[in-house]
Amino acid sequence: MRKLLFLGLGNPILSDDAVGIRVVDKIKSIMGDSNGIDFVTGSMAGLRILDVIQGYDELVIVDAIEKGGEPGTLYKIPIEDLESTLHLTSLHSINLVTAIELGRKMSLKIPKRISIYGIEVKDVVKFSEKMTPEVEESIPKNAEEIIRREV
Known about the structure:
The chain is α/β, with parallel strands linked by helices. The chain has one domain: 3-Layer(aba) Sandwich (Rossmann fold), CATH 3.40.50.1450. It has four helices and five strands; from the N terminus they run E-H-E-H-E-E-H-E-H. The protein has a five-stranded mixed β-sheet with strand order 2-1-3-5-4.
């Protein structure tokens, strides 16, 4: 049986930055307890991600993105489109791609299939637990679309 992890990233007190967390929470509420599927949400980056993702066969990441599109728009982002950190000056500057590459080089069991979804946001700087209406309203349809594509 496959082991799948839905990972919702963001900051729950920075308005729309919470969208990754909220979408994964919605996916979990729709799917319930599914055998072999786990759900993790939070603010994490760098090497800490390796602790969370290792041991899974498949990984679905959901996070906020700013591409200049309509707020609430769902994008599937190929991992190849993300850049690795070429010149590390600190371990704090390790991004997702670099962390995954490092995990594989360390022979950790990193998921073979990784899907990344970004949801267009409007405001990620205002301290608020409330999201903008456009992004808030997109949560159910984006959760359903991700389930349709990934499960």
